[in-house]
Amino acid sequence: MSILKRRKNITLQQRLAQLTGHLAEINGEGLGLEPGRLQRVFKRNFIQVSGELFVPLSLQSIRVFDVKPAARTVRVGLRTTFKTGKAFSSIRLVQIGTDFVEVQAKGKFPSRILFPLNKIEGIFPVGYHAAPSKTASVSK
To answer: Which of 56, 100, 111, 132 holds its CA 20 to 30 A away from the CA of 139?
Structure first.
């Protein structure tokens, strides 16, 4: 399946509104916050998590817990504007919205990670390579 077939006409605010009530982890530069409930999603610009307001498009990512695994995904790699090591070099793409990318997080607990599009530098397909071919040995 093509990466671009995962495109949807939905904004980050609209997607977060669908996830209101879920446990969310806010990730941003210098933030070390514990997960809290996504209490409210305002029509424009803000979300409320554990009584605090955040601007989702300014964050590095938002991880939302207790979301069922997606029925259809595409294995991709993500290049982000912030350091992640190889954490997102092979991950399952759920959808690309108008201003965000959503992936299915790895790990024991079902969750999704939403990246504002301005934090993504590139998305690349990750394929499965065939076993290396055997090389002929040269005898003396």
So the answer is: 132
* CA atoms of 50 and 35, how far apart (whole Å): 8
Structural contact between residues 83 and 128, judged by C-beta atoms closer than 8 angstroms: no
In the sheet that holds 47-49, the strands lie side by side as 52-54, 47-49, 36-41, 23-27, 61-65, 111-116, 100-104, 91-96, 74-80, 120-125
CA-wise closest residue to 108 among 69, 82, 51? 69
Contact 115, 93 (CB under 8 A): no
Model confidence over 63-77: pLDDT tens digits? 999 999 888 899 998
CB 24 within 8 A of CB 62: yes
Q: Can you tell me whether residue 14 is helix, strand or coil?
A: helix
Nearest to 17 by CA among 39, 35, 33: 39
User: Model pTM?
Assistant: 0.83
Q: What's the CA angle centered on 45, arms 88 and 61, to 5 degrees?
A: 15
Look up residue 118 and give its DSSP letter: G
